[in-house]
């Protein structure tokens, strides 16, 4: 907070009750932590308190300090905050010892130079300090000897400034708390390689620069310096005592920065099964649900996927993933006819405030078909199957009944008697039209002598050997099924 040392602590909502979340409870600090969150505590949001127990503190009151109009946060015009107003420091008696105190208070290493005469431009408003005289080991510029705050005999043309060693800086970002990490060593600035670079490293950098906690730690030269883009050419001239000879201008060379990006992929994903396929054309039933997935391999995280339809952006989503593979899913919960067309995926990333886009993926043609057509076809097929099944069952029943009702058994009398007809079912009258009252005639004792003689004559007309009599009897007694 840049408020100096703690003078007193206050309890029981001394400065009034808060109204938002109680984040910390049972905080135990050693006094050497860089942040309150680094102290031991239950965990964010874990507590058994209410706002009647809100804690407070009283600091020594060292005002905030800042450097304005410099090349980075560790160089510029010195300004302090007093009575709610920012004001400058007069350069009377301003030297390297004073600058040393400012650089240390800003956590900017050691002082390189102490600037005067409005070197970083003239400020506005009050001049809070004048005739500052520091030993060099003070923790705040207000601890140095100086007249009363606001008492001076200067103008803003005498505003003081400093240039600190700034052992660490961020370059090419959108502000002083983002950019490419650079370190000052042996009078020269250099970069940091991204091998093993991760969030914990970013936290250290942000804390050292007074920028809070790291929210991301980009790699692969994410913060590119585009300041040298443009057209370049060589010009030669020769100066003589009385004139200057200009030679023709050389060829123009265009310097540009190219960000190489892979071509993304476009696929379809089934919402009901883990099925991913990548066709060129697909037909989708009206009212159904499916997903279009965009994916790419890229060394530039934090990008966006654009789903375009016929060269017009249909939807946009933030890419998510890990390492070098990123995806985004676009859902079509209820697809309609206006959704059909040619779709492509484009991956875009913002680098140093400039947007770079990949070339579009291959085209995916989506056609929407009517839901009723498929239903009719399905209904016809089901109807045909049911009809065939009913016909099969009817034929089977008819076949069984016809075989059972129409059977008539014949027996041949071994003595050449008349054929006996036996109807196994009384209903046979319906099949052959015969009267069931007709009885089968059988040979018995009532037969006349003429019949016996005729039978004997028929038997005598055929020679029978004893060797085939049994076979003949079995054959003649075997039932014959007449259909």
Briefly, what is this?
This is Deleted in malignant brain tumors 1 protein Hensin. The protein has 483 residues and is α+β, with helices and mostly antiparallel strands.
Supply database-style keywords.
Mac-2 Binding Protein, six-stranded mixed β-sheet, 29 strands, flat, Immunoglobulin-like, alpha+beta
Give a written overview of the molecule.
It is a single chain. Among the domains are: 61 residues, Mac-2 Binding Protein, CATH 3.10.250.10; 100 residues, Mac-2 Binding Protein; 105 residues, Immunoglobulins (Immunoglobulin-like, Sandwich). The chain is built from 6 helices and 29 strands. The strands form 8 sheets. Strands 3, 4, 5, 6, 7 and 8 form a 6-stranded mixed sheet that branches. Strands 18, 20, 21, 24, 25 and 26 form a 6-stranded mixed sheet that branches. A hairpin with a 2-residue loop joins β20 and β21. The chain starts with 5 loop residues before the first strand and ends with a strand. The C terminus is likely disordered. Its main location: secreted. It is found in: Secreted.
Largest sheet: 6 strands, mixed
Note poorly predicted spans.
406-483
CATH architecture annotation name of one domain: Sandwich
- Output the CATH topology of one domain: Immunoglobulin-like
Q: First CA to last CA: what distance? A: 113 Å
- Strand pairing plus helix content: what structural class? alpha+beta
- SS elements, strand count: 29
Average pLDDT taken over every residue = 75
* CA-based shape: flat
Task: Evaluate the radius of gyration.
Answer: 52 Å
CATH class of one domain, named Mainly Beta
Helix count equals 6
Provide the β-strand percentage band.
25-35%
Which range best describes the helical content: under 10%, 10-25%, 25-40%, 40-55%, 55-70% or over 70%?
A: 10-25%
- CATH H-tier superfamily of one domain: Immunoglobulins
GO cellular component, one term: membrane
Pfam family, one: SRCR
InterPro entries: Ig-like_dom, Ig-like_dom_sf, Ig-like_fold, SRCR, SRCR-like_dom_sf
Keywords: Disulfide bond, Glycoprotein, Membrane, Repeat, Secreted, Signal, Transmembrane, Transmembrane helix
